[in-house]
Amino acid sequence: MKTLLRWTVLAVVLLATGVAAQGQNPAGQSLAGQWQGTLAVGPGLRLVVVLTPNAAAGGYTATFYSIDQTPVGLAATAIVQGGTVRIGVAPAGVTFEGKLSPDANSIAGNFVQGPNSTPLTLVRATKETAYAIPAPPRAMAADAPTTFEVATIKPSNPDFQGKLFTVKGREVLTLGTTLSDLITFAYNVHTRQVTGGPPWMESDKYDVTGRPLAEGTPNDRQLREMIRTLLEDRFKLAIRRDKRDMQAYAITVGNTPPKLARNETNPNGLPSLLFKGLGMLPVVNATMSDFARVMQTAVLDRPVVDRTGLQGRFDFTLNWTPDESQFRSMGVRVPPPPQDGSGPPGLFTAIHEQLGLRLESVTAPVEIIVIDRVERPSDN
């Protein structure tokens, strides 16, 4: 599977609450237990689906894990109809559909995420073959030093598409990121809010791998502070701040209540805003400021400000048909929309219809980052 676009602040942080699976299988055997397989993406991603009997619902409770990305399970739906098994993971924008083998020990089908479909076979695990599901990571202390114990910066693979910011355990990782990307992430600004600097800060791409000095997984604030420290140390970045009125977008509440599911599982954890394709954005454990941040950084051509007044964290999925003005900062060319008019609506309509919010053009005072000095990164 070739991912068109990858952008995340961190791996998903969501406590699992299963959803009942329904139906019977033709072999008459229970499907309860751990089912697992390896998805042929990069070095391979190990996936696990755990089905637990749920007598009250007449089926199973389903939980999905991508154990090479995060140890936290996601609530899943699982439907068994005859020999067909369908599994859906709404927070991750994932579906799987396959055929159960006659002995009910494997399910061969396709894993679908956004526009990408990849063959996948899930096999019933035994005590000896079951993948070990890692324990959830421990959060970094609130007063921990926000510096890296060790960090490497190297040129990106030119064949890598998109950009990635993530944390895997204690490892902070970026792929395909320019200095401009690192600055906008670290200071939470749009590229239009950064002035000065050499041309190479928009063209040279780097992969950054860092291990924080402190134990535990950093939160959003700590992650940005670590990247700022890295920029000052390795790129010799020196900046000053200013304010300027600028054309921007504002996210506001519509005339009806927002259509957002509140997430109270991890109020201090990192959000997940991971594109599953152009115009497909599942959001987990995110504030409205987080949502505005990813829209201004990855999608839109100007800053985005949060004027919803909504507090707390939310889960939702936004699906829209992007136009050619969007995703330019990601270096992705948006294909023309379907000629027959099929597919989801445009971004402004989708935000209103699917989220109960509005995206409006405004003039707003925004912070400006002025670069006084910067150098290519020092040796590792």
Fold blueprint:
Layout: E1 19-22, E2 33-39, E3 45-54, E4 59-66, E5 74-81, E6 84-89, E7 94-100, E8 106-113, E9 116-124, E10 148-155, E11 164-168, E12 171-178, H1 179-187, E13 194-195, H2 200-203, E14 205-212, H3 220-234, E15 238-253, E16 261-262, E17 272-273, E18 280-286, H4 288-299, E19 304-306, E20 314-319, H5 347-355, E21 357-373
Parallel strand pairs: 1-5, 13-21, 15-19
Antiparallel strand pairs: 1-4, 2-3, 2-9, 3-4, 4-5, 5-6, 6-7, 7-8, 8-9, 10-14, 11-12, 12-14, 15-21, 16-20, 17-18, 18-20
List keywords for this structure.
380 residues, mainly beta, Lipocalin, 13% helix, globular
Could you explain how this protein is built, in words?
There is one protein chain. This protein has 5 helices and 21 strands. It has helices spanning 179-187, 200-203, 220-234, 288-299, 347-355; strands at 19-22, 33-39, 45-54, 59-66, 74-81, 84-89, 94-100, 106-113, 116-124, 148-155, 164-168, 171-178, 194-195, 205-212, 238-253, 261-262, 272-273, 280-286, 304-306, 314-319, 357-373. Helix 1 crosses helix 3 (220-234). The longest helix has 15 residues, at 220-234. The two termini are 32 Å apart.
Q: Approximately what portion of the residues adopt beta-strand conformation?
A: 35-45%
- What distance separates the N and C termini? 32 Å
Structure classification: mainly beta
Helix and strand run: EEEEEEEEEEEEHEHEHEEEEHEEHE
Residues in helix, %: 10-25%
- Round the mean pLDDT to the nearest integer and report it: 85
**Biggest sheet record:** 9 strands, mixed
Taken together, the total number of domains comes to 2
Kindly state the number of beta strands.
21
Total DSSP helices: 5
Classify the oligomer.
single chain
Using only C-alpha atoms, the radius of gyration works out to 22 Å
Net shape: globular
Q: Could you name the ranges where pLDDT drops below 50 across 5 or more consecutive residues?
A: 1-23
